[in-house]
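Quick question, first post here. What does this chain look like in 3D?
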Amino acid sequence: MAKVTEPQTQKATGASRVYTILRDEILTMKLAPGTALDEIGLSERFDLSRSPIREALVRLSADGLVSILPNRSTIVSQMDFRRIPEFLDALDLLQRVTTRLAALHRSPLELADIRTAQKAYEKAIANCVKTGTSQAMIEKNYDFHMAIAKAGHNVYFADLYRRLLEEGRRMLHLHFEFQTLDEHMTAEEIGRDHTQIVDAIEARDADLAEELAHRHAAQFKGRFMQFLDRNITASMTLTYPQAQP
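> Answer (accepted):
Ran it through. Tokens below.
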């Protein structure tokens, strides 16, 4: 029996390792959108057969982080900046509804889980400000908002919100990288919105919880659009026709 399961265990472990490493590299933009992911090259890099590599790529595809093309080649999924306003509007709506429902329906245990996620987020913020790496903060931000969605007791809203948060991880990385460039930005200031949201959920003040969630989303939208304006347009080369003598 051991001889049968051991290779399967090694395969699963290898695929999980490849998945975790590539996922982190995609989310932190070390692997830029559109980058080709060659199975042979990845096999050599990770010293694995192509089977666990392919399994990891399938998982990343399910997360929306890579795209498997009709010719069976694989690339890091593109980011469609034209649709970002639509994404941010949807995020605002889902964040409002899940936070409102959490204020109405959360149990004491779920509130404790939200508080725990909030503390973990605050710790990750402090580390991000100190080290300049945002990955842990992005993960803890996801955990925090999903703890709120779970407390809302609506699996459909929670699933839609999860998909938005997953899709937006790379945007969050860009946003947090931009946010931490502000030398006056502190960990307390970054985490203040979350603290206020949790207090409203604890007080079961649904109107305030929804309003704070909206402000939080609107603030993210404003900062991210500011980031795009400073970084995307700054890289564009402008050419003008020569003036006629």
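The chain is about 70% helix and 0% strand.
Residues 118 and 152 are 17 Å apart (CA to CA).
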